[in-house]
Amino acid sequence: MSTVVDNVKTIVEPILEEHNFYLADIEFVKEGSGWYLRVYIDKPGGITLNDCVVVNDELSEALDNVDPDPIPQAYYLEVSSPGAERPLKTEADMERAVGEYIHISLFQKQDGNKVFEGTLLELNDDTLTLDVKVKSRKKQISFERKNIANARLAIEF
Question: What is the Cα–Cα distance from 76 to 93, expressed in whole angstroms?
């Protein structure tokens, strides 16, 4: 179904640019007997319900006007925020997360752990550096990017 995602991406990106939003993710999945097209959008400071309604209306109209139809089967369109603990999937996601509190999971242990949370201080092609709390002290730890299985924003408690 990546063709559906690719087609929708080319249709939704100009709509998002017009409103100064960015695309966080798109998924087209079958759940039960129904298909769902989910478009996750964001902007600095966070997305509002009204922002989602505007994009939903404009995207729905744009999809209805494309010929041939990029999604031949019936589906539900959902436009929403990616959430407070959204995944960081792209390089742009990672760059926007500098200065934010994030959670990373590693393929191989480092310092005896595979999971770390901290403030993303620095990011380059090969490594990222987190400011991690170890017991009662803060410590800067660098990680090889090729060892990072996944990353997401996190809520600091």
Answer: 26
Same domain, 34 and 97: no
CB 39 within 8 A of CB 62: no
Extract the runs of DSSP E, i.e. beta strands, from the chain: 22-31, 34-42, 76-80, 101-110, 113-123, 127-134, 137-144, 148-153
pLDDT at 85 over 80: yes
Whole-model pTM: value is: 0.79
- The number of domains in the chain is 2
Please check whether residue 56 is in contact with residue 79, taking contact to mean a CB–CB distance below 8 angstroms: yes
CATH number of the domain bearing residue 136: 2.30.30.180
Nearest to 26 by CA among 84, 72, 71, 73: 71
Tokens read off for 101: 């509190």
The verdict on 109 and 49 lying in the same domain is no
What per-residue confidence (pLDDT) applies to 2? Answer: 62
Six token digits for residue 32: 């039960």
Which CA distances in Å does 157 have to 101, 103, 118, 140, 154? 10, 13, 11, 19, 9
Asked if 42 and 81 touch (Cβ cutoff 8 Å), the reply is yes
